[in-house]
């Protein structure tokens, strides 16, 4: 049986704490000899998900809390991110594609990349709302889905 | 948000002296870029060689910085580390900005 190793952190929702959490996550992954490329991808995805919680779900509450778990299995990183914020709009994960970039300077997008990055880099993403908590699960395959992630 | 600028080879070079351009500093970055690029050369190079992480907010702030320059000036990027380069390629922003390996590459292309 391959051994698994697990990272778990609970913190109050704020941009500064997201930074610290991402740093701790990267240290954990590096200590478990995850490749630099995959640590980088994990930080991009976890950053988007955690920022989304801070900027939307817990935006108007002082007691916003986030729990992030990352389990290293033989061939993937399995993430769970839960928070006590408001539900996702329309009860599900926004399934946004990339905003178009083939446009004039004035119309270039300054946002809307976050969920697109998450969808591009993860697999098996699920969302549940239980006991007033949001719970998002997703997997980073050891070999990225997109050749661009290599 | 620590940015500094210099005038080199007919370019305005703005260096980001930070490890991260993320959601917590994106607005500051945009404001500091406005200050650093208010005057100066038509061609601006943003030196990202010290930055090892950007998120989608940071990316949006770099796009905003380019828009601030208007259509008569140009913003190129230099010295992207692998994780930064990845975000530009995944979002297709590598087709919007000219990405240079380093500053000397930016001066000659």
UniProtKB/TrEMBL annotation, chain A:
Pfam family, one: HATPase_c_2
GO molecular function, one term: protein serine/threonine kinase activity
Keyword Kinase among record annotations: yes
InterPro entries named in the record: Anti-sigma-factor_SerPK, HATPase_C_sf, HATPase_dom
Keyword Metal-binding annotated: no
Start and end residues of each Histidine kinase/HSP90-like ATPase domain: 11-139
Record key words, sorted: ATP-binding, Kinase, Nucleotide-binding, Serine/threonine-protein kinase, Transferase
Protein name: ATP-binding protein
TrEMBL record, chain B:
STAS domain segment(s): 21-109
SUPFAM superfamilies according to UniProt: SpoIIaa-like
Coiled-coil stretches noted in the UniProt entry, renumbered to this chain: none
CDD domains the record matches: STAS_anti-anti-sigma_factors
Superkingdom per UniProt: Bacteria
One function term, GO molecular function aspect: anti-sigma factor antagonist activity
Family classification: Belongs to the anti-sigma-factor antagonist family.
PANTHER family: ANTI-SIGMA FACTOR ANTAGONIST TM_1081-RELATED, ANTI-SIGMA FACTOR ANTAGONIST TM_1081-RELATED-RELATED
Protein name as annotated: Anti-sigma factor antagonist
Organism of this sequence: Shimia litoralis
């Amino acid at each position: 049986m391959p051994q698994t190793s697990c990272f778990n952190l609970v913190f109050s929702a704020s941009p500064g704490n997201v930074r610290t959490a991402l740093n701790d996550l990267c240290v954990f992954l590096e200590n478990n000899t995850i490749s630099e490329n995959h640590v980088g991808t994990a930080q991009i995805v976890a950053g988007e998900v955690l920022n989304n919680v801070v900027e939307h779900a817990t935006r108007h509450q002082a007691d916003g809390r986030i729990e992030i778990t990352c389990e290293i299995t033989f061939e993937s990183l399995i993430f769970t991110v839960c928070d006590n914020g408001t539900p996702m709009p329309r009860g599900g994960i926004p399934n946004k594609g990339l905003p178009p970039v083939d446009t004039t300077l004035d119309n270039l997008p300054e946002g809307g990349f976050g969920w697109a990055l998450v969808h591009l880099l993860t697999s098996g993403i699920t969302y549940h709302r239980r006991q007033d908590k949001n719970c998002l699960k997703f997997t980073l395959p050891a070999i990225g889905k997109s050749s661009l992630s290599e | 948000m620590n940015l500094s600028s210099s005038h080199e080879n007919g370019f305005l070079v703005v260096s980001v002296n930070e490890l991260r351009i993320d959601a917590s500093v994106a607005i500051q970055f945009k404001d500091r870029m406005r200050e650093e690029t208010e005057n100066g050369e038509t061609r601006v190079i943003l030196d990202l060689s010290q930055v090892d992480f950007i998120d989608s907010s940071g990316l949006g702030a770099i796009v905003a910085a380019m828009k601030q320059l208007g259509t008569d000036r140009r913003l190129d990027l230099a010295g992207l580390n692998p994780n930064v380069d990845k975000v530009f390629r995944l979002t297709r922003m590598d087709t919007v900005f000219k990405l240079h390996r380093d500053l000397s590459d930016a001066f000659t292309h």
